[in-house]
Amino acid sequence: MAHRHAAARKIRGSAADHRGVKSTPKPVRAVYALLVAGLTVHGANALTGPGDWPFPDAITTWLYLLLMVVGSLVAVASVVRRRRERLAWTAISAGLVLWTTGDALWSFWIGNMDNQPYPSVSDFLYIASYAAIYTGFILLLRARVRPVRGSQWVDGMVGCLAISGVAAAVLFPAFTGLTEGTTSQVAVNLAYPVCDLLLLSFVALALGLNRWRLDRSWVLLGVGQLMNVIADVIYAYQDASGTYVVGSWIDTMWPIGVAVTAAAAWQRAPRTTVEELGGRMLPLTAAFAATALGVLLAGQFTPIHKAAALLAGGALVLAGVRGAMLFRDNLRLLRTSRLESLTDGLSGLPNRRALMLDLEDAAAVATLQEPRTLALFDLDGFKQYNDAFGHGAGDSLLRRLAGDLATAVAENGRAYRLGGDEFCILLDRHADAHDPVIEAALLALFEPADPYAVDASYGLVALPRDALTANEALRLADHRMYALKHGRRATQGQAREVLLALLGEREPDLHRHMRDVASLARLVGREMGLDAEDLDVVVRAAELHDIGKVAIPDAILHKPGALDDDDWAFIRQHTIIGERIVSAAEALRPVGRVVRSSHERWDGGGYPDGLRGSEIPLGARIVLACDAWDAMTSDRTYRRAMPAAAAAAELRTHAATQFDPEVVAALLSVVFDNDRVAAAG
Questions:
Q1: pLDDT per residue over 335-355, tens digit each?
Q2: pTM for the full model?
Q3: Residue 513 in contact with residue 632, Cβ under 8 Å?
């Protein structure tokens, strides 16, 4: 065993410290070797016949006590070395010391009296040792099995009492005279077998809570205490029948139990959690309860000891308590499950399922005199906000908006989150678009994070005027909400048409270029997997990316010679001017942000902000590459168009410096796919 400890220490290193004591020191191993030798001598003397060896008293008394003392001191020594579970092993070691002290007092004092008192000081020390060991077991379980709920202890006590009841029914009839004598004598008579039974039950409880995993610590502790219990029971029987002989093999079992228990104190054991235990104890508890019931039923046909009946009855009472606890836990779990099924996990608001239940109730009770109002909201601009600041910030915004919405409608109804960026309110009265509650709800769903402002489109439905059922009301609200949202997009489209018309009047060639860039950007965006909303922003930005040039003087824009530094300073302002022009229409603000960055370079050498890499919006990276491709492959007054192969080579050359390599790959995939080019035409 010592060699195995040493190997474990070499392999695990310092990781052993958190699990209890360090590896068993060499002096302790040497002591164990002496213990084994002493136990061998004592056992051999007992088996060959006590008194047949030389110096029989030295073996039966002095060697016995020496083995008990040394074993107890080894257990005490482990407490000094231990970091965890020190209090538990202190109690167990104290139990061993108390038992050994009781043996010593009996051997050298009480046992030599002419009139031996009963119960004696040794008896009280023996019984106290049980209490110390019980305490150690409980502390050890608390340290290793965390957290232990009340139900776990009830499960364990049911098992303890059931096992004790069975043992009492079987063993107590063999112990004559247990209830004879004075009150103190009867109490001590009963204490010994009951304490042994409880100790056996504690061993079973500990192994059960440890999921019956036979790690060395629990096994050695269990075996050590089991040896003591067996020795006690056999001794009690032999003493009652007058067949006990001092120095027999029974006497060897007690120092073996102490030595094995001390060995357990030097082991390391992993911690077990209640989550790992799950419901494993419930079937076992039911089996113990059935066993206790069997003891009581057996008592109807044959006499059993009163202690057995009391223990079995106690097990059944605790089993009933455990059943009540299980019923309570199931009710609590049912309530929790229902609450979770009706609650949105992110915002804490009621979810779609809760809305449908409430909406069905509202549709059933709503009348023209007492109407109800359903308002469905969908956030506008949230995706851009989420992309700009990250999903964590987006979730935080949703939680904040949800709280503000719940507060805004608290006195008039209830707020819900349906999922994603959709919210809903159900009011217990009529409300129109100008109602203060609707305005408060819209204000609650507004986030002025310029240039990534978030607001909401909405749809209103009155019950029962507009709809009679929950599904009909929700469908109509959704339809009206998207009608408003599309209306906003129509406004966006009108603003775009005005700007394109202005550009067409001012620069007809530039208008055609921007239209071609937009067509190519649409194909590239699809190739890169953009969703419909992002793709629409990219296309609009491609159409308007040079709109700021309408503010550049013609003398610079059409200058026949090379541009000087002042001219370039004007030119580099066109993206900022373009953003201001486009963003004047609130619905086009996401487009304006892409327009501003449409001349940023992948290596950070672009303008106006010197962004690099992924700092540049993806839409702007697409527009830049498509703009360059169209410029290279189109005829200009000062040069002819480049062949597609040469333009492709140019893009590849400047990928990762001027252009995003992934955008270049997607663009070339598009332009060299004849079918898609034909479709674009």
A1: 777 777 788 888 888 988 888
A2: 0.46
A3: no
